[in-house]
What we know:
Elements: H1 2-10, H2 12-34, H3 48-58, E1 68-75, H4 84-96, E2 101-106, E3 109-112, E4 118-119, E5 135-142, H5 149-160, E6 167-172
Antiparallel strand pairs: 1-5, 1-6, 2-3, 2-5, 3-4
Helix pairs in contact: 1-2
Amino acid sequence: MQKFARFVIRRRWFVLAGWLVFIVAVQGLLSGLGGSQYKDDFKLPHTETETVSRLLTASGLASANGASGTMVIHAKSGTVADFAGTVQPALQRLCTANLGIASVNSPYGQISCAQGGTSGGGTGKQALISKDQTIAVVDINWTAAQPTISQITDTHNALKGLSSGPLQVEFTGNAFQALAAPSGGVPPEVI
Length: 191
């Protein structure tokens, strides 16, 4: 071990150059493995997830296999019920906008895009509304497990216009993570 330590200290610039070449080579190899062909698909054969996916598809619930995102609405004045006339029509328009939306579940009722954007009726789920009636969540479900970036962006753009002085609209969930602002700066590998 002493011989190795002496070699590393005497030839430290060669060792440093060797490590840099190794890091660059590994990064190049790893970027070539995935690339544009990388898929984040949970339908691996012979797994419980794949079995559930097949059962949902066979029973006519294939849209339950898709990605989902959440829109959070906050009534800065009044309650979320005061904005039903604004929010619900915007949610129904998602079905006719060719965005790949399967269904929307909101405190104002459920919308099934398979039925042409018709509301499932009812007053919605109280579990989607906070106790003080000022915050609610809207679950948006796509038909595809991996909706395109343009579908997600267009959905976001169609709904962000709801945000006004008395109503705040924010987005979260797996689908909307694709819209996260890219982190700038220097990649840690360079440092």
